[in-house]
Amino acid sequence: MTVRSIRCLMFALALALTSLPVAAKESITIAAAADLKFAMDDIVTAFQQAHPADQVQVIYGSSGKFTTQIEQGAPFDLFFAADISYPQALAKAGLTASAPTPFGTGRIVLWSATEDARKLTLQDLAKPQFRRIAIANPEHAPYGVRAVQALKAAGVWASVKPRLVYGENIGQTAQFVQSGNAQVGIIALALALNPAFAAKGGYAPIPDTLYDPLVQGFVITRRAAHDPLAAAFARFIDAPVAQAILRRYGFAGAH
Amino acid sequence: MLLTADDLAALWLTLKLAATVTVLLFALGTPLAWWLARSRSRWAHPVAAIVALPLVLPPTVLGFYLLVAFGPHGPVGGITQALGLGLLAFTFPGLVLASMLYSLPFVVQPLRHAFEAIGERPLEVAATLRAGPLDRFFTVVLPLARRGFVTAGVLGFAHTVGEFGVVLMIGGNIPRSTRVLSVQIYDHVEALEYAQAHALAGGLLLFSFVVLLAVYAGQPQRRSF
Q1: Residue A11 lies inside a defined structural domain of this protein
Q2: Hey, is the C-beta of B201 within 8 angstroms of any chain A C-beta?
Q3: Helix (H, G, I), strand (E, B) or coil at A165
Q4: Does A122 share its domain with A174?
Q5: Are strands A101-106 and A214-220 parallel, antiparallel or unpaired?
Q6: pTM confidence score
Q7: Overall number of domains in chain A
Q8: What ipTM, to 2 d.p.?
Q9: CB-CB under 8 Å, B71 with A176
């Protein structure tokens, strides 16, 4: 490439960048636990009907990773965690602009994409036909911690443990099951309830007496302390529309 | 030291994976590189491009297709199930196969360049001395391409040690089976265990530097950049 053609290219690039449409009025970025994937998509869609000019961007991942990233100054304005203890830790470190607020309770279910899981119980996992059983990584994913608690409480931990595979977050755990590489998995009810997953195999709830409650919590981060759009989104979680969506995805007992 | 039993298990597993992959890649990569260096077939360019693909593709592309291929409805999963081997995802052999694809160019390309650098002449001379093809390969090519084999082995090994994305996608993070060092570091960071992450990450940094230093120091000083 000649110097001249490089110059032409740079000029074209500069032109393209300056002629981009005027940026949206305001924008916020939300870090959300992977169990919220479908529920949060719906909530954002509903929120944007009242804020059509503003931009709301959601990034999904594990609560542990987001906590680390926010500690290191990641540009998230709101943080929705699968376990309120993560935003509480951030609040203790002085990195938040609002008190950690519970917005629902997560539940775990047994789910399979390859067979009918509706009648499955944790005891059935002892059967060798389940060669691979997917759970979220208990070292940093709240759903993984609860899955281990439930397996231990059901008395099948010893037989199940050698066959466990660990998803990086609850989303990857579900994907291990969906691809059929794991025959069954313990995933979030909120994920099992989404239409794409519900069409396959079905799910069986795990009694919530077997694990500690998964209190979901969110917080406004310090960088968004004076951001009106972040505050508006936080208020919107309380609105009947958002509450209905949370209920639809099984986050019963919000507040 | 800050290393826990799990850290040491991950370290051992990583070394085992890298050594297995390197040995297998020598067996597969040597004939492949030889063919690429000598062939005038119209297939040589497409094959060379396929071999180089892992250099440019994000690991997620490889990870995604392997996960689908290894699954019960995928082509590889169909074969392994028919053979009574079960599924390859979340297993050490599955990781070996994935790493071989991932590190293939790092072994094949140095070998190919070494073979090309030898040229026709030494082989023609050996042929006039009635050396057969195999004899020529072992007594002429191997000694002359020694440098290339060292580079290929070191890069193949080190690149497998440095693998992360593919393992995260098809490994399932099983201790002593698929939880390699890079994943163990990731887990430590996510669990906010920075001291343990430091111990492993710092060790890997040092290891990688020493490896690259050895490769560069071993290069003949023909040109200066």
Answers
A1: no
A2: no
A3: strand
A4: yes
A5: antiparallel
A6: 0.80
A7: 2
A8: 0.74
A9: no
